[in-house]
Specification:
Blueprint: H1 2-71, H2 75-108
Coiled coil: 41-106
Keywords: Coiled coil
Amino acid sequence: QRKAHQDALENAQGCLSTKLQLFSEELDARKAHRIEQEGKIDEVFQNLEAITTEINNLLKEIEVIETRVFTDGNRNRLNDKLSEERESLDNKLQFYLDEKNKLLSELQE
């Protein structure tokens, strides 16, 4: 009977050891997932910062062009060229605004 109790005790210890191992592995997996998520969030914020800088630079360039349009004497020829450049900058600005919105959307998920 003592042997049966000892076997039961060893069996219980084995089960507890297995459960402890499983819990430990689950905890490690959750920690790794949290660290991965934090890294993704940091990456999104870095991308947002870079895009915001690009947007601000484009807005400054647009402001310079608008100022030049109103102050230059050769308005017609320059206007056409600057309008093309402005359209290009507007397109780039829209691209970065779309990217920013996309990143913000991903961040909210």
